Amino acid sequence: NKITPDYIITDAEKLDIRIPQSNIIHGDANCHGIAAASIIAKVTRDRQMELLHKLYPEYNFYKNKGYGTKEHIEALLTYGPTDIHRKTFIKKILDKNQQLSLI
What we know:
This protein is mainly alpha-helical. It has one domain (8-102): Nucleotidyltransferase, domain 5, CATH 3.30.420.10. 56% of the residues lie in helices and 6% in strands. The protein is built from five helices and two strands; from the N terminus they run E-E-H-H-H-H-H. The chain has helices at residues 27-30, 32-55, 61-64, 70-79, 87-102; strands at 8-10, 21-23. The chain has a two-stranded parallel sheet. The longest helix is centred in the middle third of the chain and has 24 residues, at 32-55. The chain is elongated and about 45 Å long. The N and C termini lie far apart (55 Å).
């Protein structure tokens, strides 16, 4: 069963969908529903990263949870990206690393 919401409230991020929405800047600080959703999303992501650590231990996702820590960036540069790395994340890291190598 698919449920379509009548209205969406986001933390400033406008969604490209045809459902009425409010995009509240600092929504997690100003709306209890956004704050709760943010916590649920973070806990869910952290748990997923702990499971992905078993598949890709060299990235130490258990510790860094996929955030751009020094250790994670070094692993990305050493081992290359996995199928789970976001292309935007990889591009940002590689662009920054290339700029640093020019200095």
